[in-house]
Specification:
Number of domains: 1
Number of strands: 0
Strand content: under 5%
Largest sheet: none
Shape: flat
Number of helices: 3
Radius of gyration: 14 Å
Structural class: mainly alpha
């Protein structure tokens, strides 16, 4: 499988199974990208992602 089409196919396959699995695959992709970043930048990225996701998590868990 070509490198440029791997993640889009994986995400599509996971989203076909369920939205939650699709979201997990997208986060897996972000995790793989963040490995090559400076640790300070990667930590800030994950903090911003967490801040953005928290309202969504709160909305669907209450």
């Amino acid at each position: 499988m070509s490198g440029s089409t791997y993640w889009p196919r994986e995400v599509k396959r996971a989203e076909d199974a369920s939205p939650k699995k699709g979201a997990i695959r997208r986060l897996d992709r972000l995790r793989s990208i963040s490995r090559s970043l400076d640790p300070v930048i990667a930590n800030r990225m994950w903090g911003e992602i967490g801040d953005a996701l928290q309202p969504i998590i709160d909305r669907y868990t209450t």
